[in-house]
Amino acid sequence: MGSRSKIAKNLERAYIAGFLDGNGSLMLQLKKRSDSKRGIRFMTTICFYQDTRHEKDLNWIKKVLGIGYLSKRKDGMSELRINGYKQVDLILKSLLPFIRFKKLQANALKNACEILSNIKFKMLDKKKIIYLIDCMLIIQGNNYATKKKKTKDELYAMFDLTP
Q1: Domain assignment of residue 114, given as a range
Q2: Hey, CA dihedral for 118, 120, 123, 124, is it positive or negative?
Q3: Residues 93-148: pLDDT tens digits?
Q4: CATH number of the domain that 64 lies in?
């Protein structure tokens, strides 16, 4: 019986990973924050998209993963968002064996989450910040983008890392 439930869990993970590969995105972003010295923070997100008419699929994913919040957009799409370093890290670790098309982004985001969930933002040294920026650029470079993304030089300047 135990192995049967493991098979069922793996099938669910495989389905969710496939859904993420096709109708999802992985993001590592810098967000403005007024309550910190640097004025910015890293934000990690897994997002699943679906036409609102088929929102029940997103509800199922939310139920299986046990986390996330669902919202309806004005363009007729719904999205399930999962934020937070530890939560994103745990989900990626369970989905990574099944992810095919977004493997680079998933590994980069998982690596960033491992750093960010173990060290306070203000304690990040130069080497770790550069690594996080590299992860961000890997994710950005492999995602479809509708908006202009910051360049490496712009990101370095935000952290006063330019020579």
Answers
A1: 2-158
A2: positive
A3: 999 999 999 999 999 999 999 999 998 888 889 999 999 999 999 999 888 765 67
A4: 3.10.28.10
